[in-house]
Amino acid sequence: MSLPLSGKVAIVTGSSRGIGAAIARRLAADGAHVVVNYNGSEAAAKQVVEDINNEGRGRAVAAKADMSSIEEGTRLVEDTVKSLGRLDVLVHNAAFKTVGGLDAVDEADFDAHFSINVRTPLFVTQAAAQHLPKGGRVVFVTSNTTKTSAVTPEYLIYTASKGAAEQLVRVLAKDLGRRGITVNAVSPGATDTDFFRGDGKSEEFVELIANLFPQKQIPVAEDIAPLVAFLARDEAGWVNGQCIMVNGGMAV
């Protein structure tokens, strides 16, 4: 029996670990040939590729590109099409996050967030749109921080940048939708990854977050990836311009 993404080529930015790695593995399990993008984590990216290729369903290759750079991001697209012959699915997962409220934010912090979370994804989508066929898919990984009143002031610029990305989704869905290409966002809540824990959260704070979920636990990356895989399928062709929360009911 053919797998749902057999013959498809997918790029997942920032996929050497965390949610991105889980997405890459899930797309490959559904038969896709996945480009595992990394910047500084080459060993981790190669491990994801090895895991996928050993599984024997889809295939994978690793590709280095700094997603703060429009030039490197667009080169990733062009190199993928040149080497693999096509591009069907583009997942914008690479992200930047620091913690700091109004008193702490500066221009460099603002620019870093909007460069990786908004600007490069926009222009990479522009480059990818030249190659995506009818039935192509673009998925942004955003954040529940754009929708919940529980967000703290320290997530000021991160939340603003992810909100901007979600507005891109809504407009691009109208634009690319004319060609039968869907653009959606998957918006996880807190997910137990290095990215989540990397800003120095204490175990007490992690437990507090866990208790906000009805299930009294924090989901892992593998709980997020199936929705991205669904959006990549042909069956999801009428899901377009949506920002879908994946948080177990923490924010509704």
From TrEMBL:
Keywords: Oxidoreductase. InterPro entries: NAD(P)-bd_dom_sf, SDR_fam. GO terms for molecular function: oxidoreductase activity, acting on CH-OH group of donors. Belongs to the short-chain dehydrogenases/reductases (SDR) family. The keyword Oxidoreductase applies. It comes from the Eukaryota. This is Uncharacterized protein.
